[in-house]
Amino acid sequence: MNEICQRVDAAIREWEHGDIPGTQNLFFIINHSRTCARCGRSYGALLPLLRRDAGEPSGLAPADQTCSTDFTNSVMRRATRAKVLRFSGSTMQTAKWALPLAGCLALLLGLGGLILQAHMHSTAERVMVSFRFEAPSASQVSLAGDFNGWRVGELILKQGQSGVWEIAVPLHTGAIYTYDFLIDGQQWIPDPHSETQVDDGFGGLASVLRL
Amino acid sequence: MKEIGAEGTERADELDAIGEVLRGNKDAFRHIVDRYKGLVVKLSLSFLGNREEAEEAAQEIFLRVYRSLHRFSLDKKLLPWLYSIAVNHLRTAYGRMRTREERTAAVEVELTASEESDPQRLVLEDYERSSLRQAVDTLPSTLREVIVLYYYQEMRIETIGAVLNIGVENVKSRLFRGRQKLRETLQKDATLESLP
């Protein structure tokens, strides 16, 4: 290690303690690190930090702030559907053992017959809600709702016999959720047999499930 | 980078939008999303290093903001409050992402390209930034957050203090310890690499 390396070592220690390197000092460190294998290995990766401290472009900050074109709409869709209403009535406490199906009737659309059935198997505070959905001509059916932050593609139903799709989701009792089905990643379909449907804020409806 | 705080008309528009949301006009939240989405995505990208993860995290951050808006104090500025929520969320998101062990490859893709034209220099600088990023990711979260906000987000020390709700001296102390640990980690890696 020669005298220049020692000077670079000292400058790096000073920088660590908060001494901002002047431009001249910065380029001295950079140039030496580019020619000295030892200092290059030791300090090369620190150079962007020194550049930032010296007021030079560091190349560390993500330059691109652009978002996907649907970013705002996606946030708004999820935000307006996001609220989980807490239910505090005693009725629900007794009802959790006898929760009926959230919806068991047929919904006929262009895709064919669509049927949602929700079976609930209760535990102490959570129930497994089994969603069944008949859509023989669909290639994918997914479920999204408050319970998963309305993230699409996360709860994919499995196709069973006769074009019936199914998924079980653990949900909490004493809450009211909103949800919809998404067919082939394009068409949102509310459950027409849910107790209530609410405006989703985008000209559509969201199904309401009360547990 | 745009400094914290919007003045004059922008500030009034922002307060109007918040008031509208709190009065039940959900669509007014769109104004807040449109205004800050670039900054939030950029912050998320700095923390996560992966665009897809960053966009998803940014959306979740806005959802958190939306749900918490009733707790926002209207005499405060929105951006530091928003950043605080964002950093809290990104801590969790980062942990989840690390668990999935998807991070290393993604970082290399998202590294900012140098403006220099020397190909060898470009390769070297990309390698150095990649090494640095890996070292940053080994830091304890308290140091890592400060390093990311200061060096990758280019925030001022005072702003970082406001976002993390800590004093300026504490920020400086964490920066010092962060730099020290980075140097130690990188030197250790360099020593290992130089072994035959």
How would you describe this protein?
The complex is a heterodimer of chains A (211) and B (196). Helix content of chain A is 27%, strand content 31%. The radius of gyration of chain A is 29 Å and the shape is elongated. Chain A contains 6 helices and 12 strands. Chain A starts with a helix and ends with a strand. The longest helix of chain A has 14 residues, at 3-16. In chain A, strand 9 (175-183) and strand 10 (187-189) form a beta hairpin. Chain A is of the alpha+beta class and 211 residues long. Chain B has 196 residues and is mainly alpha-helical. Chain B contains 9 helices and no strands. Chain B has helices at 8-22, 29-48, 51-68, 78-99, 103-110, 119-137, 141-152, 157-164, 168-194. In chain B, helix 3 crosses helix 4 (78-99) and helix 8 (157-164) packs across helix 9 (168-194). Chain B starts with 7 loop residues before the first helix and ends with a helix. Residues 1-6 and 102-116 of chain B have low confidence and may be disordered. At the A-B interface, helix 1, helix 3, helix 4 and helix 5 of A face helix 2, helix 3, helix 6, helix 7 and helix 9 of B.
Question: In which range does the helix fraction of chain B lie?
Answer: over 70%
Instruction: Label the CATH architecture of the largest domain in chain A.
Output: Sandwich
The biggest beta sheet of chain A is recorded as: 7 strands, antiparallel
Number of strands of chain A: 12
Distance between the termini of chain B: 44 Å
Query: Helical region count of chain A?
Result: 6
Give the % helix of chain A: 25-40%
